[in-house]
Amino acid sequence: MAVSRKIIQRRIKSVRNTRKITKAMELVAAAKMRRAGAAVVKTRPFATLSWETIRKVVAATGESVEHALLAAKPTASRTLLVLFASDRGLAGGYNVNILKLALQTIKTLPVGNVDAITIGKRAGDAMARTGVPMIASFTGLAEQPKFADIVPIGRLIIEQFTKGNYQNVILGSTEYVSAITQKANIKTLLPITLDEAIGGATAPRQNEAISFEPNPARVLDRVLPGLLETMVYQALLEAAASEHASRMMAMRNATDSATEMLDDLTFTYNQARQGAITQEIAEISGGKAALEK
Q1: Are 229 and 149 in contact (CB under 8 A)?
Q2: Strand pairing of 182-190 and 168-176?
Q3: What's the gap between Cα 73 and its chain centre?
Q4: What SS3 class is residue 132?
Q5: I need a labelling partner for 145 at 20 to 30 A (CA). Which of 15, 66, 79, 203 fits?
């Protein structure tokens, strides 16, 4: 019984130390999530306005507009996947959800016709395990997201697509909805289709004259790459906020589980201690009865 009590005491100490660690990680993740969430809220209107601007430009120019980022590549058959995940684990279902969705999407494409650009160590590891070729891999971007870090990724995407190496580019990331809700999704990044742009645009009024200086093609040359980089940067911010939120909830659940385990272990220890006391009393009473005889 004494040995059992010592084992329980060691377990209580271990669980208590673990709870301190998970609680500290929860607080750190909560602080990072608040900063990342604020950044997401601030940049969303700009990203939305950028996309709406492109829609208006395309709607104003009509089918006469021509640009390399608006045209599909009929000679290409491969797909480029830009995938966001985390560098570290202990983030609940964050990595599982986006990687599962990415693998499901890859299975719907022809075998061997997918390349990847990964952001986050876990995304790179997943693509390596499944045998998907990676043309580039980036780590350490989600800790302190900066637009300058995204520029090389955006330029690489544009270069690979305009060269005709890929038929389309898809983006896999996690949308930050709230501290308890994050949504993994896959969306088309390139080409920016004419039907999609015109379908969501507000058509110009008949008496509203729109002119382009020097011409629509030059305007699109300048604006479209910036839009693409903005979309990738927004995806990075969303992914960072989602990761911190998921980690915060995972550590909170771990802390709650540790508290419940401590309650159970304390109850078990008290039972063992009470049993030991009862046994000692019984031995004393038995000894006294034997002496009286």
Answers
A1: no
A2: antiparallel
A3: 30
A4: coil
A5: 79
Summarised one tens digit per residue, pLDDT across range 33-52 is 999 988 898 888 888 887 77
Span 238-262, pLDDT tens digits = 999 999 999 999 999 999 999 999 9
Please report the sign of the dihedral spanned by the C-alpha atoms of residue 6, residue 9, residue 11, residue 14. Answer: negative
Domains of the chain by start residue, with CATH? 27-249 (3.40.1380.10)
Q: Is 111 helix (H, G, I), strand (E, B) or coil?
A: coil
Q: Is 253 left (phi over 0), alpha (psi -120 to 50) or beta?
A: alpha
* pTM, to two decimals: 0.82
